[in-house]
Amino acid sequence: MPDPTAAILPALSAALADIVARTKSAIVSVHSHRSRASGFIWKPGLIVTADEALADEGEVSVKLADGTVGPASIAGRDHTTDIALLRFDTGNAAPVALSPVVPELGSLSVVVAAEHGVPTAALGTVSLVGGSWRSLRGGEIDARIELGVRLRHNHEGGLALTASGDAIGMAVQGVRRVLVIPSATIGRVAGRLETHGRIARGYLGVGLQPVKLDDGIGAMVMSVDQSGPSAAAGIRQGDIIVGWNGEKISGVRSLLRALGPDSVGSVVDVEIRRGGEPVRVKLTIGERADA
């Protein structure tokens, strides 16, 4: 009697191969200085790749799946979310349709990347799924997705797909793990890069150090940019910031979290302690010049 499970693996294999075949035409190779990475066509004429894998200087070239090679220009890059956007004539190649789907823990995932223009594929599992988080560089990532898959350096920027063929984001190398920058983050950040060429970041114009207080944690002002927003608000070296818009802060990190793109130009109430006495000031958040 034929084994009814005998056809399962061939069927799964054929389905995964079909998913890769339908996606590989949108996958590109990116070469910058001595660095190589992968990327994918996000919109006609626009390619998303991993910022970490992109050289800081020098020319950038792209090779499409059909063999077309040419120079690309950097439309914008965001170190905090590891997203870079390139401009390149993608011809008739169809862009990737990113999906907002967050995969199930333990489900299969395929990373489709490129090596010297030749498509590659690696199969693994979704090893961790969680909520939104902040990268070590302060970027807001909409979901925590980790993959149990081997990812070469030049495959960073490739697409992570579900077993159903949904493109759930960009595969990048994290600290001892492979991460997915989810579609929601790519759409938000790449959209700003396309429009503005950069991601604005809030700027206070102070150097801060966490300090323990009797009733919590504050942020001591160690230095002040005399041309910055804090100096204009009257904040001085030695002041301790303890409150932000009526709420106690939990340290320096909580202040940094408040300095996202939408914070620039907003006015906040800052509570400080100066010589043990409470002082309140209004501060207009500036924009980092190197954002």
From TrEMBL:
Taxonomy, superkingdom: Bacteria
GO molecular function, one term: peptidase activity
Species of origin: Bradyrhizobium algeriense
Listed name of the protein: S1-C subfamily serine protease
GO terms classed as biological process: proteolysis
SMART domains: PDZ (SM00228)
PDZ domain sequence ranges: 198-252
Keyword Transferase: no
Stated family: Belongs to the peptidase S1C family.
Keyword field: Hydrolase, Protease, Serine protease
PANTHER family, per database record: SERINE PROTEASE FAMILY S1C HTRA-RELATED, SERINE PROTEASE HTRA2, MITOCHONDRIAL
Annotated signal peptide: none
Pfam families: PDZ_2, Trypsin_2
